[in-house]
Amino acid sequence: MSHDHIHKVLHRHWAYNQFRPLQEDIIRSVLAGRDTLALLPTGGGKSICFQVPAMAQEGICIVITPLIALMKDQVDQLERRRISAAAIFSGMPPKEIDKVLEQAVNGELKFLYCSPERLRNEMFRMRLPKMPVNLLAVDESHCISQWGYDFRPPYLKIAHIRPLMKNNPPVIALTATATPPVVEDIQNKLEFKTHNVFQKSFERKNLTYVVIHEEDKLMRLLRLVTNVPGTGIIYVRNRKKTREIALWLQNKNIPAGYYHAGLDQKIREKRQQEWMEGKIRIIVATNAFGMGIDKPNVRFVAHMDVPDNLEAYFQEAGRGGRDQKQSWAVLMYNKEDLLDAQRYFQWAYPPLETIKKVYDELGNFLKVPVGTGVNAAYDFEISQFVKTCNLHPVIAFNAIKFLEKEGYLILSDAIKNTSRVFISLNRNQLYEFQVRHAYYDPFIKILLRSYPGLFSGYVRINEYEISRRAAITVEKTQDILHKLSHMDVLDYQASSENPQLVFVGQRYHYRDLQISPETYQYRKEAARMRLEAIKDYVTSSTRCRSHILLDYFGEKNAPRCGKCDVCKERNKLNLSQYEFDLVLDRIKPAMLKEKITLQEMIKYADIEDHKKVMSVLSWLLDHNKVIKYGVYYAWNTREHQKEK
Asked: 208 with 329: CB under 8 angstroms?
């Protein structure tokens, strides 16, 4: 395929004149038929890496992602570009799923998004061999690895569908955060024919990382907001704090709004849009905010609580400075925050018996008999659930999330599902119906004139617009649509904004849940190690922040950034990085072996300017790296163990 062709595809559909670094290499690897793993940091343009090669070929691209909201967002974006796309996920009506699969088989779609749980569905597996698949894209591919921070067993089924696809299309796996063991595991679990990784450095030269130990975090936040002009995101752990901090900033005459998954969908959309357009300078949010957001000019991202792990922190902090201009990633903490992080970790892993009890209570609360409920969706308010069943809210929520990761159910936030209509009859049958039922004829004509494509698939409609054109009330419009649906003329899926819970399989008796103590313990231990990593990042006062992050994600021997809070302290010594490291490399081995005097230290350093040795020693003492015993100095072995 020519160089010009993929550039024409990029310009025609996305109006870009050139690719970002690595994108073209990844696309050419895919078009050459090679299984490909793309590691690009947040904002690195991962979707282009599978969308362009899919558009450059005949056939359909199947995209697997666990995030329903992200599916809908990407489908909306593609449709706005006049690219045919659809999504299927647990909880959709079977008739609608069947129609979407039929469109995929008939080659009427370029992109089919689906959740990993869908891969076990017999309807999907029977249709897959008939689809002209040109590419299988696995988003959030770290979920396939037990070493990953969000491991999901349904992802392990992806490799099983590869033999079902005709023409043996390649796989592209994409993720923004993966440690070296996860990178290896992704390729093995997806059964790559040959290991093939494209990785852009995780280094963000324009992003300055700062960690601040602070008791009065609000006043420090005010200084940050005042001194750093421009748009910002403030992340907090719970919903209540989003409102409290936003109102506090408003009282200081700073335009701020708050965002969390518990807000009404219309309010969330309005807040997000106001922030995107600059009407709100700062958004205070939980981690529910940010998915699919590509605002280039975010000047700072502040965390007021310690995140659960470095993967989540790196993704959220990475939403700053996507325009490559100077931005700040600031994390504030105090001693109580570290204790809270430990408590949240314990709450995140309730005892197995508690998890099973919550599962049983869910079935009773939703009135789902044992052995039924396969893929059925239920409106679900967790606050009402915990109150009715007398459960601890945080523990119940984490038990549900654990069950979700194990593939037993799916809990979605309130996501606006726009009303959709599909005409079940063919054109001749519909005409005969209109002749026999003159009352409905004008309404059906308005529907057909307003929304093309109603015979080929589900089309999103607006009841308010239809009612205006038909000169009737919205309630009357909805009533007619429901009646036509009951008469099997069309299928009408009314809009909804409620959070939903879906039993992926049948409801089991709680004693039959297959959650092994080994799997549970493994997950908990892996999470504990990730918590220790974020705590080390927060409490370190001697290692460059960027260096810690890059080292965690496998970029060994990365250079110091020279501008984080730790590097700034070191810069005060008036020593170059080379000079500091030279002295350190010469005196540290000696102090690890035994206590030495200052004269011996100067001898080991072997440089003419003894003041430089004194500067390095002073810094090491201030940061508790070295301990003084009278006239002797020795390396702090406890700090050394931490470094290792």
From this structure: yes
Tokens of 432: 């005969």
- Could you report how far apart the first and last alpha carbons of the chain are, in Å? 48
Q: Residue ranges of the chain with pLDDT lower than 50?
A: 644
Q: Which of 7, 2, 31, 5 is nearest to 18 (CA)?
A: 7
Token pair recorded at residue 626: 């070295």
Phi and psi at residue 49, to the nearest 5°: -65, -25
Q: What are the φ and ψ backbone dihedral angles of 48, each rounded to 5 degrees? A: -60, -30
Q: How many CB atoms lie within 10 A of CB 248?
A: 15
pLDDT of residue 319: 92
Q: What is the pLDDT of residue 130?
A: 95
556 exposure class (CB count in 10 Å sphere: 0-12, 13-18, 19+): exposed
Q: Which spans in 232-286 are helix H?
A: 239-251, 265-276
Place of tokens 């009282």: 251
Phi, psi angles (nearest 5°) of residue 86: -150, 165
Given a contact cutoff of 8 angstroms between Cβ atoms, the answer to whether 139 and 64 are in contact is yes
Count Cα neighbours of 626 within 13 Å in the Cβ-side half-sphere: 29
- 354: which 2 tokens? 């508690």
Alpha-carbon distance of 100 to 456, in angstroms, equals: 9
User: Which sign, positive or negative, has the C-alpha torsion 495, 501, 502, 506?
Assistant: negative
Sequence-ordered list of residues with C-beta below 8 angstroms from that of 545, at least 6 positions apart, any chain: 209, 210, 211, 537, 561, 564, 565, 566, 567
Q: Which two tokens stand for residue 357?
A: 């009890």
CB 534 within 8 A of CB 341: yes
- Distance, C-alpha 556 to centroid of its chain: 25
d(CA 518, CA 590): 44
Amino acid occupying residue 125: R
H or E stretch at 137: strand 133-138
Helix/strand/coil (H, E, C) string of 158-211?
HHHHHHHCCCCCCEEEEECCCCHHHHHHHHHHCCCCCCCEEECCCCCCCEEEEE
Q: Quick one: pLDDT at residue 292?
A: 66
Read off φ and ψ for residue 504, nearest 5 degrees.
-65, -45
- The whole-number pLDDT of residue 623 equals 78
- Whole-number mean pLDDT of the chain? 89
Please state the φ and ψ torsions of residue 526, each to the nearest 5 degrees. -65, -40
| pTM given for the model | 0.79
Cβ atoms of 71 and 29 within 8 Å: the answer is: no
User: Is the distance from CB of 180 to CB of 147 less than 8 angstroms?
Assistant: no
Cα separation, 74 vs 68, whole angstroms: 10
Nearest to 406 by CA among 363, 371, 355: 355
Distances in whole angstroms, Cα of residue 532 to Cα of each of 166, 181, 309, 342, 526 = 46, 18, 8, 9, 10
Single-letter code of the amino acid located at 514: Q
Token pair in block for residue 260 = 């969390």
Determine the Cα–Cα distance for residues 479 and 631; give it in Å rounded to an integer. Answer: 90
